[in-house]
Amino acid sequence: MVLSNEPGRAGVAPTLMTAGRSAWARWRGRGGLLVSALCDPGARGVTRPRGLPGALIEVLQDLAALGARVFVAMVFLRSGLTKIQDWETTLALFQDEYHVPVLPPELAAYLGTGGELVLPVLLMLGLGGRFAALGLSVVNLVAVLSLEEIAPAALLGHQLWGALLLAVALFGPGRVAVDAAVRDWLTRADGT
Predict the structure, then answer these.
(1) Whole-angstrom Cα distance, residue 160 to residue 167?
(2) Vertex 49, ends 45 and 53: CA angle to 5°?
């Protein structure tokens, strides 16, 4: 038996659950620890103050997580949309300006642009939120490393985005996310 708090509820007394009985546990078990870690919205079993202060903290945390996700996602999505508007210029930039380690310039252009178009949508929705945050962290890091010179203001922007992505990767996308809805649905499917 496992001692756990009900997900997303402030001040709820811990309940005893038999390990592996819920649909969430079975689904998590199919994909293993990696799927669980990358798709879990977070904030499960966290002890918070009871009553109004606890509820207020939860609402503020969810709003902060949503705001961070949308803010960072919009930066990368706009960058990806700019790249597909003029593909020839994008290819030229990857040939001459961006020196992505290990990858040929054309492959780097496709992978980078694809990442900037797909991962922000996942991040905004909170669908595979941790996975999307980690993926955009790689895109962010490669962007910084691929430039020979980067302006201090641009570097600060990349550092901010990296810190916000790290927070989402570590703490999850919050309850205002598809991941949380799926977890709740799977948990309710077994009546646990």
Answers:
(1) 11
(2) 125
The Cα 73–Cα 84 span in angstroms is: 17
Q: Where do we find the tokens 């003029």? A: 86
Chain-centroid distance, C-alpha 169: 5
Is the pLDDT at 34 greater than 90, yes or no?
no
pLDDT in tens, 57-103: 889 999 999 999 999 999 999 999 999 999 999 999 999 999 998 99
Question: What residues contact residue 86 under an 8 Å CB cut-off, 6+ apart?
Answer: none
Q: Which of these, 166, 160, 100, 99, lies nearest to 132 by C-alpha position?
A: 166
Q: For the chain, state the CA radius of gyration.
A: 20
Q: Is the pLDDT of residue 28 over 80?
A: no
Check: CB of residue 167 under 8 Å from CB of residue 8.
no
How many of the other CB atoms lie within 10 Å of CB of 34?
Answer: 9
Query: At CA 112, angle to CA 106 and CA 116, rounded to 5?
Result: 145
Q: How far apart are CA 52 and CA 88, in angstroms?
A: 56
Alpha-carbon distance 151 to 26, whole Å? Answer: 49
